[in-house]
């Protein structure tokens, strides 16, 4: 699987037909999603953290890359990896480790420890350096955290998204954008738009209607599986 294959899945999509990417947290869940017919996968950092026994944002880089490698090795579809803020790695090392793990894409967020937004100009420059190192070998999904830890101003989200796209991002991801501002984002942002959904068909259909190019779920599928396991455990004990 190559980044070109993954990139093509985002291009020329008909309105209302987004790319839906489930988020595996281990090799077994990855295989289950592929067997269900999904053409690509996008790992969630929080879901992998939970599967490894860490709080979100606390997974050591070595363990995150190892988990991504196990997932990519287990399936024959493109895998994109959420590598948070890049773990402080220089762009060359970050790109090298992603490619070594078998990832064809990555999420890169623009906040620090889910609490403070990065300066957008500096972040765009960093993204440009990652793009220069990766060439066409990685699909870069630039997360915009305005609605997560910032002001919630749609104009800020659009401005950041435009900067990141100009720096070489293939897709932008205004995580937690409320439904009422998504039409504004869709008008203001050219190119692929990643939105986060909940794992219900109606929610996915609504994001498709609002203009999502791609829909991901963060750790919600892992949470669902964990909840089902807890219910099973309770029934067995009862």
Automatic annotation (TrEMBL):
Highest rank taxon of the organism:
Bacteria
- Pfam family of the protein (one): PEP_mutase
Instruction: Provide the protein name.
Output: Isocitrate lyase/phosphoenolpyruvate mutase family protein
Q: According to the UniProt entry, where is the signal peptide?
A: none
For this UniProt entry, the molecular function terms from Gene Ontology, in alphabetical order, are: lyase activity
Q: Which InterPro entries match?
A: ICL/PEPM, Pyrv/PenolPyrv_kinase-like_dom, Pyrv_kinase-like_dom_sf
Family matches, as CDD domains:
ICL_PEPM
Q: Which UniProt keywords apply?
A: Lyase, Pyruvate
């Amino acid at each position: 699987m190559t980044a070109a294959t993954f990139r093509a899945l985002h291009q020329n999509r008909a309105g209302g037909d987004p790319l839906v990417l489930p988020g595996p947290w281990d090799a077994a869940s990855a295989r289950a999603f592929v067997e269900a017919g999904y053409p690509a996968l996008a790992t969630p950092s929080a879901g992998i953290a939970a599967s490894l026994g860490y709080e979100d944002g606390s997974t050591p880089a070595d363990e995150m890359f190892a988990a991504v490698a196990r997932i990519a090795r287990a399936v024959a579809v493109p895998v994109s990896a959420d590598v948070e803020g890049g773990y402080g790695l220089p762009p060359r090392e970050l790109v090298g480790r992603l490619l070594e793990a078998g990832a064809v894409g990555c999420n890169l967020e623009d906040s620090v420890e889910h609490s403070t937004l990065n300066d957008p100009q500096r972040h765009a420059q960093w993204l440009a350096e990652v793009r220069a190192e990766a060439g066409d070998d990685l699909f870069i999904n630039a997360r915009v955290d305005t609605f997560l830890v910032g002001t919630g101003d749609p104009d800020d989200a659009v401005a950041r998204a435009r900067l990141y796209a100009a720096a070489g991002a293939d897709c932008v991801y205004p995580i937690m954008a409320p439904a009422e501002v998504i039409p504004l984002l869709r008008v203001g942002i050219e190119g692929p738009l990643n939105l986060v959904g909940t794992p219900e068909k109606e929610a996915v259909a609504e994001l498709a209607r609002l203009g999502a190019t791609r829909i991901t779920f963060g750790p919600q599928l892992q949470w669902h599986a964990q909840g089902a396991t807890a219910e099973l455990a309770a029934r067995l004990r009862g």
